[in-house]
């Protein structure tokens, strides 16, 4: 049955809000921003205010190296599972940090598995997606590696240009990028270098030259076993 829609302008400030009344007595509220610019400073102030909120359910726990490896191991296995389904070629359409949850053992678990790429192009997606807006399983490998930059640095994802600089500059530059809290342990420092080496292999501009996630999974398993030894 086609819905009976009634639109009503509710607000006359920065946006319009419309109520959508369906015949089944279900009401939706849709907000649409008006054309125009909101001052960047106003936006930044709002984000700072939100970021300063403290709540008992928001726990900023520092993640040790073993936990970071486990996040990589778990999330990789999730991608391998998606990529190796029989008779169908699937991919994850929205790989980003907020879509990885931790299980009780602190292994990464993939969430929000969109089999189609979302219309939003994020900093996790390969440069080619900016023009083609098409993703593949090798695109997933690229996005996953950008996610790894958060595990290595504890900061926002690095862009492709930064990774290229890192590829060229080597150890001196990586010391500035890696999470300083982890560099004190020489074993962990070597593990971070190993993770970086795997990550860089997945950043080839030619998608066909990138390793598949099954190969990456074996690398993480080796690193995890070596750490536990």
UniProtKB/TrEMBL annotation:
PANTHER family: LEUCINE-RICH REPEAT RECEPTOR-LIKE PROTEIN KINASE PXC1
Protein name: Serine/threonine protein kinase
Class in the EC hierarchy, top level: transferase
Family matches, as Gene3D superfamilies: Transferase(Phosphotransferase) domain 1
The keyword Isomerase is annotated on this UniProt entry: no
InterPro entries: Kinase-like_dom_sf, PRK1-6/SRF4-like, Prot_kinase_dom, Ser-Thr/Tyr_kinase_cat_dom
EC number(s) recorded for this UniProt protein: 2.7.11.1
């Amino acid at each position: 049955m086609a819905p009976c829609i009634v639109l009503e302008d509710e607000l006359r400030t920065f946006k319009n809000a419309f109520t959508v009344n369906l015949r089944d007595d279900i009401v939706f509220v849709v907000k649409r921003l008006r054309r125009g610019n909101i001052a960047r400073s106003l936006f930044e102030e709002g984000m700072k205010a939100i970021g300063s909120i403290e709540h008992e359910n928001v726990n900023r726990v520092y993640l040790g190296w073993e936990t970071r490896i486990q996040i990589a191991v778990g999330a990789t296995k999730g991608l391998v599972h998606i990529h190796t389904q029989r008779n169908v070629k699937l991919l994850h359409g929205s790989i980003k940090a907020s879509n990885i949850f931790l299980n009780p053992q602190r292994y990464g678990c993939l969430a929000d598995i969109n089999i189609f790429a979302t219309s939003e192009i994020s900093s996790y997606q390969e440069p080619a997606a900016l023009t083609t807006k098409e993703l593949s399983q090798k695109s997933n490998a690229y996005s996953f590696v950008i996610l790894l930059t958060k595990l290595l640095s504890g900061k926002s994802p690095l862009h492709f240009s930064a990774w290229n600089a890192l590829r060229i500059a080597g150890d001196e530059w990586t010391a500035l990028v890696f999470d300083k809290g982890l560099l004190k342990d020489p074993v962990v420092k070597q593990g971070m270098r190993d993770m970086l080496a795997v990550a860089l292999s997945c950043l080839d501009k030619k998608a066909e030259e990138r390793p598949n996630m099954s190969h990456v999974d074996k690398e993480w398993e080796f690193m995890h076993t070596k750490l536990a030894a």
